[in-house]
Each structure stands twice: as C-alpha cells, then as structure tokens.
What does this fold into?
Amino acid sequence: MNEERCQALRLLKTARGQLDGIIKMIEEERYCIDISNQILASNALLKKANLHILTGHLESCVRHALDHEEQVDEKLQEVETLLAKLMK
It folds into this structure.
C-alpha cells in the first residue's frame, strides 16, 4: 500500500471513531451545536482522506497512463468527472 493510501486509511479510521462518537452524542441527546461541530470535523477528515486518494491516483494511475498513450484520454475524463462532482 502506498503512502497516500496509508494516510487516507488512518484518516478514515479516525473519522469512523468520530462517527461512532457522534451517534452516541445523538443517542444521549447532547447539545446540537456540539454534535454539528463533530460532524464538521468528520467531514474535514473525509475531505483530507479523499485528497490523499486523489493525489495517489494522479501520482500513480495518471502518471502510468502518460506512458501508455491509449489510456490518457480515459484517465483525464475520470479526473474531469470527479472534479465536476467536487464542484457541486
């Protein structure tokens, strides 16, 4: 597993722990603002994890495609589609 995936995995495991904590907070009827702040923190971790995955993709899959010209258009289209989703 490359370094980017290791970092993403670490962040996702942390987010999973936060989600469990958020569920418990809701079950315990904790203060709404505290819950919302924890949800925002979890979202930030998910975004960071996604950035590591995308960085790894660019450094490996897209770089590999540059050496195999028939794959370049496909990889560029994948990235363009993903960027469109991120911009929504």
Notes: Helices lie at 3-27, 32-66, 69-87. Residues 62 and 68 are 10 Å apart (CA to CA). The two ends are 31 Å apart (CA to CA).
